[in-house]
Amino acid sequence: MSVSIVIPVKNEGKHLRACLDGWNSQTIPVEEIVVIDSGSTDNTLEIARSFSNVTVIEIAGCEFNHGATRNQAIKAATGEFVMMTVGDARPTDDKVLEKMLACFTDESVAGVCGLQVVPHDHDKNPVEWFRPQSKPTSQRFQFTEEGEYDELPPDEKHRVTGWDDVVAMYRRRVIQNEIPYREITYGEDIQWAQEAYRAGYALVYCPAARVYHYHFEDAVITFKRTITVSCLRYRMFGELPECPPIAMPVLRTAKALFQERGLSAKKRFRWLKHNIQNQLALRSAVKRFRAAVRQGDNAVQDLQQQYSGKQFKVAENQV
User: Do 142 and 244 sit in the same domain of this protein?
Assistant: First the structure.
C-alpha cells in the first residue's frame, strides 16, 4: 500500500523541516510528499526542495482555498492513500502511518482520522498539554440507510463528524474521483466527512495516530475562533452551543497548572491569568453567537463576516 502525503504551506520555514523529517522516518516508506505553497516569503520552498521525495506546487496567495487547493495537490499525488497534514505539525512517533493504514480494513472505509496533541514544551500552554486518561481505542462509523446520518440529533452528528485535516488519511480514488473537497472557505474536512457518510462510506477515528500541533491563542483569537466554529457547527449540524460555565474550568485550570512541578510560580500565575482570560472570551463569544441566532440567519451571517472576514459557504444540501 503506497502513501502520498499532501501538505499545504505558507511561511512554514520554522516548522517544515521537522514535519518532513517526521514523515520520512515512518515505518511505512513515503515515496512522495506533495507540498503546495501559496506565496511563502521565507525559506519554506528552499526547505521543501531539499528533500528528494518532495514535489513542490506553487500558487499565488490570493488563489488559496481550503478545499480547492487541497484538491489541486491531490491530483498530483499517485499513492493509493493520501495523508493530509499541515506544515507546522509533526508525527509523535514513527508508526503514525502504520496505525492509520491498519484501519483500512475493507473497501468501504474511505478515510481514517487521527488526533492532534500538544507536546509538553514550556513555550506552549501547559493546560493544553496532552495528558492521556485511557488507552486509545479506534471507532468506526457508517450509515448505510439513506437519510440515516441526517436524522441524527445535532450533538451526535457533531460527535461522529469531528474530522480533522491536520491528521487524516484518505483512499485516493474516493477523494479524487468520487468525493473531492468542496470549494469552501472553512470546514472542508468536516463537509467531506458528511458527504462520505451520505454516500454510505465508513470513517474511522484512530486516536493512537497522533501529531504534535499547537497554535497560541490569546483572548482575541479565542473569541474569533469560537464565533467561527460556532457558525460552522450551527450550519452543518444544527448545533447551538450552551453558554459554558466559568467556575469549574477555572478550578481545573488551576489544578493542572499547580500540579506541574516543572513550572515556576511566576509561569503558573501567568498561564492561569491567560487561561482565565480565554475562558471569559469563549463565554462572551458563545453569548454573542446565541444572541445572533435569536435574531435570525442574516444576523448569524453578519456575525461570521464581522469576525472572520469571510462568508461561510456550504453546499445546498447542508443543514
Answer: no
Angle, vertex CA 118, rays to CA 85 and CA 51, nearest 5: 40
The count of domains in the chain is 2
pLDDT at 185: 81
Crossing angle for the helix pair 66-76 and 188-198, nearest 10 degrees? 70
> What is the per-residue pLDDT across 191-221, written as a single tens digit (0 to 9) for each?
999 999 999 999 999 999 999 999 999 999 9
Using DSSP's 3-state secondary structure scheme, residue 303 falls into helix
Give the burial class of 290: count Cβ atoms within 10 A of its Cβ; 0-12 exposed, 13-18 middle, 19 or more buried.
middle
pLDDT, position 310: 52
Using only the alpha carbons of the chain, give its radius of gyration: 20
Beta partners for residue 113, in sequence order: 168, 205
DSSP-assigned letter for residue 128: G
Asked whether residue 169 falls in the same domain as residue 241, the answer is no
Alpha carbon distance 314, 235 (integer Å): 8
- Residues 103 and 61: their CA atoms lie apart, in Å, by 35
Give the domain range for residue 259. 219-308
Are residue 53 and residue 166 in the same domain, yes or no?
Answer: yes
Mean pLDDT of 133-155: 94
